[in-house]
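Example record for the data management plan.
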Amino acid sequence: MGHRFCNRVALITGGSRGIGKEIAKTFAEEGAKVAIIDIDKEALNEVSKEFQAEGYEIFTKCTNVVIFEEVKVAIEEVNSKFGSIDILVNNAGIIRDNLLFKMTESDWQQVMDVHLKGTFNTTLAAQSYMVNQKYGRIINISSTSALGNRGQANYATAKAGLQGFTKTLAIELGKYGITTNAVAPGFIKTDMTKETAKRVGVSFDEFIKSSITSIPVGRAGEPSDIANAVAFFADEKSSFVNGQVIYVAGGPKS
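Corresponding structural encoding:
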């Protein structure tokens, strides 16, 4: 692999496992200094050891993205350690799936808080550094669920909201050399999709086989498929790509 992110600093929220970890790994492999904030302390310790063993520069901090003060302190520490905040990937997310009539207020609010308030908090804290340096790449992780998905009224609403947030930031921050885009994954093999399989009462293998039947390329997505799309948006050469949502789903979505 090349080093297109050499001397760049990439901050990934919820980056201790799954898609977030793969995104962090891709940036590290391509020369970036990587910072990960997450609420899973044990997973953060593991990813830190793993990246250090590979010789990557990494910073991790146990941080709740819903609490602005925690986010602000974490980002200040990243900037202090690495000297800038060049790339922000808002990946942290949770699911609390249920049909609407079974969904609790807590199910709704927790999903809104992590996806929307969390993304607002990290972006608000990071953008000041990007504005000052007249450079930045913000990538928000949405989902094909933004188009509507049974049992995910909360998640679908949050992911659709992220797309509106993305397009608005693109308009507001573009003049500062900052682009904002979103990646919307389709069916990706992660712990989160395992949870969905459990909810609908089938094995993960059965769930994958069933999902593949509606995917034109005939396979399930891997976390690396999402990481590659994120890397495209984060590339310095992608400066004229702004306010876009790319569906990485093995087929067209609209």
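Summary line stored alongside the record: The chain has a mean pLDDT of 96.
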